[in-house]
Amino acid sequence: MRIAQIAPLIESVPPRRYGGTERIVSYLTEELVRAGHEVTLFASGDSLTAAELAPMCEMGLRLSPADADPVVHHLIMLEEVRRRADEFDVLHLHVDLLQFSVLREHRQRCLTTLHGRLDLPVAHRLYATYDDFPLVSISDHQRLPMPPVNWAGTVLHGLPTDLLPFSPKSDGYLAFLGRISPEKRPDRAIEMAVRAGRPLKIAAKVDAADKPYWESVIRPMVEANPNVEFIGEIDERQKADFLGRADALLFPIDWPEPFGLVMIEAMACGTPVIAFPCGSVPEVLQDGLTGYFVTSVEEGAARIGDIGRLDRAVIRRIFERRFSAERMARDYVAIYQRLVGAAPVRMRRPERGLFKAANGSRNAPL
């Protein structure tokens, strides 16, 4: 199949550090290429892929030194996708909302994966207006707040099975990985570790919007507890070591998490997860097998003492069966095939693109 993957431009694909959506786009794109599909990735110019790269800006906008209005850049990208739409059997979008008006004439072949929270009423009127666009959820729970729309399926995220190696032994510390924000509840993670008397390492980014929360709540807690270490934002290479050496990942969220990629990253290493059962968590974890569900800090601290009962090899096998990138790609291809069957594909001569790769060739594979 000829497939266009349209990524957000905030980060490169894959991202250098934090960036869950761009990471999933990368894993899916590379797996589709390995399966023999013709894939074009619309993304920032610093992206790395075995697919044909259509660079839409020089670099991921979050790290760009230039004035980078994300709405302007994404609209320019979507216009380029519209101009080239008939080159592809399927247009798979990962950019939330902006594409609906631009790509209305191609809607039967447009598949949009919704990566974020959907409990924000401001967006519901728009989704209801464009209810003929096929949508994919990344968990069944993610769908609950939405008005009636055209759901094409639910596809749980997946990772390459060789991305994060299995670690049969741990080094005695607890891990928190992600972003410092009120809904991620790093304060709960600190309280759980302190109550359990266990060391906690926090590897997380601090966005500008969350800096007051960091300065007023989390930083004082870190400084007041010598068993808590703040590492900061880490990259993919550091992640394998950080998660693999942990006794458990703490995931004490307080919001309707659409998926929670870090849970399956920990599972890939064989590391169990102690999590509050919000949002997608019960669809991802298996209580008593890959981790434990807890509903309070006190219960979480008590469960830390039980993590030795969980078999890290079993956790890894469950990851391989349920959360591989290969399985994720198969699920998406099944949806693509249904879309192609419902929408005959037209061919036309490709138009000259708005952007061109610097060397005129595809980037090196990951």
UniProtKB/TrEMBL annotation:
InterPro entries: Glyco_trans_1 (IPR001296), Glyco_trans_4-like_N (IPR028098)
GO molecular function, one term: glycosyltransferase activity
Keywords, in A-Z order: Transferase
UniProt keyword annotation of Nuclease present: no
CDD domains: GT4_AviGT4-like (cd03802)
Glycosyltransferase subfamily 4-like N-terminal domain boundaries: 18-124
UniProt key word Transferase: yes
Domain Glycosyl transferase family: 168-297
Protein name: Glycosyltransferase family 4 protein
Organism per entry: Xanthobacter tagetidis
Lineage: Bacteria, Pseudomonadati, Pseudomonadota, Alphaproteobacteria, Hyphomicrobiales
